[in-house]
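Quick question about two entries, pasted in order.
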Amino acid sequence: TYYTLNTRHPVISSAVKRNLRKAERLLTVERTAHMEDAHDQLMQEFLSRISAPVRVEERFWKMPQFVASSQDAYVINAWDSKQTLAAFYVVDLAARDFANYIIGCYSKKNYVLGASDLLLSELIKMSAEYGKSYIHLGLGVNSGIRRFKEKWGARPTLRYEMCELVQKKPLILEVVRAL
């Protein structure tokens, strides 16, 4: 199911506020329109520890090109005091009414509790600045991701269904080639 989050007057629980305070003490948030080697390294670390389908891995590796070629794509980074990237989100603000969370990841080697919360908080602020009334947060592909989105007040809004079309060559072409 796809999740959306209303950005006007979000209700933030006490647990999320605690995570935000901890993360704010340890991390610096940056908005940028490009990706660096640190992003590649973090994506490599992230993808090596999860079992992502090929299409998801490909999406990660296409992000630097996407961000560089789009006027409306941004990267929200969380850097620690040693200038090590702890987490990042790629977002797209092209749509008139909503922000779109494209992809994100966080480090386990350089784990900071609340880093993802801090990035989502920044995305909410950014969405408000750009006049977006809600954020498309993408699919709730597993229970952990669903819990994260729901703790921020996101709601399932659209079912996701996937199918594949396989086209076979017409038999007549096989017969003609055989002759």
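Here is the second entry:
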Amino acid sequence: MDFHWDMHKISNMKKLFAAGCSISTRCSGKTSYPEELAKLLNYELVNCTAGCGSNYRIWRMITKHIMDGNLTSDDLVTIQYTEPTRREFWSRFPKKNDNYKDEYDDGSILRFKFDSYLWQLNKEEIEFLRTYETNFVNDAFEKENFEINNFNFQHMLKSNNINVVFIKTTRIVIIDFF
């Protein structure tokens, strides 16, 4: 059997860049909306979603893809924002078996949201996140930071002619009583 690969079609396949928190990931489901949308559009999926993800993570990852030339005006981005209080911090401690961290340089990226100190594996990270949550989060300041960063991000997307869809979500909790 002789296979002929059309490299032009393969290399020019449009991409769907999906960015968001656990709402955009598969979590305990069999599939996610980014996976289904990529199939529907026949786009290659570049999944930038993460459980406990933050808006800062979204801005960092999508901007880096644009800077590196991976994301162009031929592609599509979906953005699912989360709470403005979520953050990322670099930690000198490696990822280990933690699903809420990414390896980075010689350490890891630690994801913060309220109560995230409860599932950390390292005592220094537990103490840091608990201290940060208790003493260094202010809703008005976080809202202002979000508005400014979102403004800058949207103008960066526009100046690069990036096709983007912002997805507004609400959390739905299903309780199985039976």
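Reply: The CA atoms of residues 77 and 164 lie 5 Å apart. The chain has five helices and seven strands. Hope that helps.
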